[in-house]
Each structure stands twice: as C-alpha cells, then as structure tokens.
Amino acid sequence: MSKTISLNTTSEKGIWKSYLTLTKPKVVALMLLTALVGMCLAVPGALPVQASVLGLIGIGLMAGSAAAFNHLIDQKIDAIMARTYQRPLPQGKLRSVHVFSFAASLGLVGFFILYVGVNALTAWLTFASLLGYAAVYTLYLKRATPQNIVIAGIAGAMPPLLGWTAVTGEMHANAWLLVMIIFIWTPPHFWALAIHRKEDYAKADIPMLPVTHGVEYTKTSILLYTVLLAIVCTLPALVGMAGLVYWVGAMLLSAGFIYHAWKLKFRPQANSAIETFKFSIYQLMLLFMLLLLDHYWAGF
Fold first, then answer.
1. Predicted TM-score of the model (pTM)
2. pLDDT category of residue 151 using cuts at 50, 70 and 90
C-alpha cells in the first residue's frame, strides 16, 4: 500500500514538473525582472502594492501561457530537434488537449487579474504580446522568414512597458526605450543559439538565419547588432533615466558582449556560439539590475 502511494506521489510530481516546464520558468523569470524594473523606474517613490503584485502575477501567468502554447504548436518540430526532443509533449508525458486547456487557463486567469486588479491597458497589451509570440511568431514567422526573431522580437521585449503601464496606467517614451533595449538584444542572443543548433534547425526545416544565409553572415550580423545594442544601452543615461552607476556598468557589459561576438566571428572555438548565447542572458539580467540599482542609489 505504501509503495503504491509512493509511486502515485512520484507520478504526480512528474506531471506537475512537466506542466511547469511548459511555462519556461527561467525565461518568464527574466521577463518579470524586466517588468519589475519598468515598474520601479515609472514611479519616484514606493511602488503601489496592489498594482505591482497583481501586475507581476498577471504578466507572469500570461507569459507562461504563451510559452505553453509555443510547446503545443511546436511539438512536431521539438520531436526532431536535439535541444527540445525531451520536452513533455514529444515525450508523451502530456496530452495536447490538456496542454491547450492549461495554456488557455493560465492566459484567461492572467488577463482577468490584470484587467480587474490592475488596468485594462496592461491587460490588453499583455494579451497582444501573447498573441504576438504564440500565434504570429510560432505559427507563422518562425516558418516563413529568416528575419522571424527580428520581426517578432517586439512581443518578447514588452515586459518593461507592461510593468510601467501596470503602475501608471499610461505608456511613456522611457518605457519604450527599455523595450528597444530588449528588442535590439534579442537577435544576437537568439542567433548565437541558432548557430550552435544550426543542424537541428535545418533538419526541422526552420529558416533560421544560419540555415538560410550561412554561419559567417550570421556571425557578422551578431557583431553588428552588439555594437548597435551598445549604443542603445547608453540612451537611458543620455535621457536622464539613469546615472553614472548604470552608464559605467552598461558600457562594461556591452564591451563583454561585443568581445564575445568578435571572438565568435574572428577567433571561433567549438563552444564560442553557446558561450555568446549564455553571456547575452547574463548581460541583459545584469543590465536591468543596474537600472534598478542606479534608480535607488540616486535616491540616497
């Protein structure tokens, strides 16, 4: 009897872990960090508790919903690729109908929380981001053009604006500047991974840039984008959103990203692409943490 209970408990834990995997928790965590920074930079003093807490919960739920829909739509592709074949749907751990219900439920609950507990603007903007990622990118752009991640990057870049609107109820140019940083960051971040997994994408017939235009062309594009990103990252300091702490840190992080891109282009090693990809994640995370540190440092 005890052995049966133990097996059932293990099975239940495995199912819940599979559902958690669908939401891409690490990606959502980074998105919520950028949303929180958007909130903090939007108001001079303390954050409004209800709008902030419910805003992060709603944004997180809808981001998890978009990720789950991505798993559902891409399950045939995921089964082919070495990076994704162990996801819950290709492994048969979950049924498609259950994943659809899970994704839809997350999205509906998240939208309700934002619409009722925060404001309509944030709810509809977050819904638009969900559609942009789950439908426009995953269903169409991903399979249609090598510029897929560039065009659809705006959907994944929205969290700082969503955080801003959650606590203010309005869009502001400074919030769009934060969106621009993530929008420019996304292509070199993702193309580095695409180089590392080029054969996977070719096998799945996905027209990622390294597949359609070659690895060298993609490396050049990554390098040029990191230079452009370095310029864009100076803008918060130039417009008065941030001060010296952010500016110095941002320049160091940008130099690191440019170095990794330069090394990928001119001194490549076997792991250069994946190392560039990994560095880009830390770069964005630390960049937004610097914005937060600089914002509150200036208050002392």
1. 0.91
2. confident
